[in-house]
Design goal:
Helix content is 42%, strand content 13%. By secondary structure, the protein is of the alpha/beta class. The chain has a single domain, classed as TIM Barrel, CATH 3.20.20.20. Strands 6-5-4-3-2-1-8-7 form an eight-stranded parallel β-sheet. Helix 3 runs parallel beside helix 4. The protein starts with 10 loop residues before the first strand and ends with a helix. 47% of the residues are buried. Bound molecules: 6-hydroxymethylpterin-diphosphate.
Length: 276
């Protein structure tokens, strides 16, 4: 058990998709006014961080050229920055997009490829001086769910993340700016791989970096609950967020900010009452 009463509850990262094909909300937030309204709502609901993504990582999703990502993201980042000091993260695997996003006011580069997609990624991250989220994925988004294989999924995820953190440090990224993410659903069997990762998050936390957990509305929840559709996975999403809180993750990436923030408040209050 890695729960520590002195550790604050996880921060809530609210997801804002500016894509036409993201799996869980069907691209309802493509229009930038709509995306801004959604961002405002998530901040009002208690999001500490907004994660803006303009390219879906859903298996089979179409790739988006860097210029299109930048066109979608930069005006939205500027608009959010003009009215709020919420932390802004940009979910992209492309260094040129990260550079444009940071110039517009983002402070976190969330890269599902752990800075492996482009040979310039490591140096770009070091040069930008932003925080970086290094996520584990086996394979690449288009094919990652075809036949994921591990001998020891938790050990392999932890080893990969430790190696990527060292690669980032060696490239000049400050250690204290690095986050790790086990990548729930990325090249992992629905239950055989995702559930052990969720059960042993403390081993990822033990690597000594803040951990981000993204389990919100993911397919394993549907697999455990009779094929529940993405917008009917709130209960399972909160259960996973609380498992993360128990293990000491630093933040949870979620669609349903108000409900998750409430669950974490109640969880933290119970934990405190239990003898901090
Ligand atoms: N999951 C998705 C996208 N980005 N980034 C991190 N760090 N961790 C995650 O678990 C993660 C992520 C899933 O992406 P997508 O399929 O586009 O759906 P959505 O953005 O609605 O979650």
């Amino acid at each position: 058990m890695s729960f520590r009463p002195d550790r604050p509850p996880p921060r809530v990262m609210g997801i804002v998709n500016v894509t036409p094909d993201s799996f869980s909300d069907g691209g309802r937030f493509l229009d930038s006014d709509v995306a801004l309204a959604h961002a405002r709502r998530l901040v009002a609901e208690g999001a500490h961080i907004l994660d803006l993504g303009a390219e879906s990582t859903r298996p089979g999703a179409d790739p988006v050229p860097a210029g299109v990502e930048i066109e979608r993201l930069v005006p939205l980042i500027r608009a959010i920055r003009a009215e709020s000091d919420v932390a802004i993260s940009v979910d992209t695997m492309k260094p040129e997009v990260a550079r444009a996003a940071v110039a517009a006011g983002a402070t976190i580069w969330n890269d599902v490829t752990a800075l492996r997609h482009d040979p310039a990624s490591l140096d770009t991250a070091a040069g930008l001086g932003c925080e970086v989220v290094l996520m584990h994925m086996q394979g690449e988004p288009r094919t990652m769910q075809a036949e994921p294989r591990y001998d020891d999924v938790v050990g392999e995820v932890a080893e990969f993340l430790a190696e990527r953190a060292e690669a980032a440090v060696a490239a000049g990224v400050a250690r204290e700016r690095i986050w790790l993410d086990p990548g729930v659903g990325f090249g992992k069997h629905m239950t055989r791989h995702n559930l052990p990762v969720l059960a042993h998050l403390d081993r990822i936390v033990a690597l000594g970096f803040p951990v981000l957990l993204g389990a919100s509305r993911k397919s394993f929840i549907g697999a455990l609950d009779g094929g529940a559709a993405p917008d009917a996975r709130l209960g399972g999403s909160i259960a996973a967020a609380l498992a993360g809180a128990e293990a000491g993750v630093a933040a949870v990436r979620v669609h349903d900010v108000a409900e998750t923030a409430q669950a974490l408040k109640v969880w933290a209050a119970i934990r405190q009452a239990g003898g901090a």
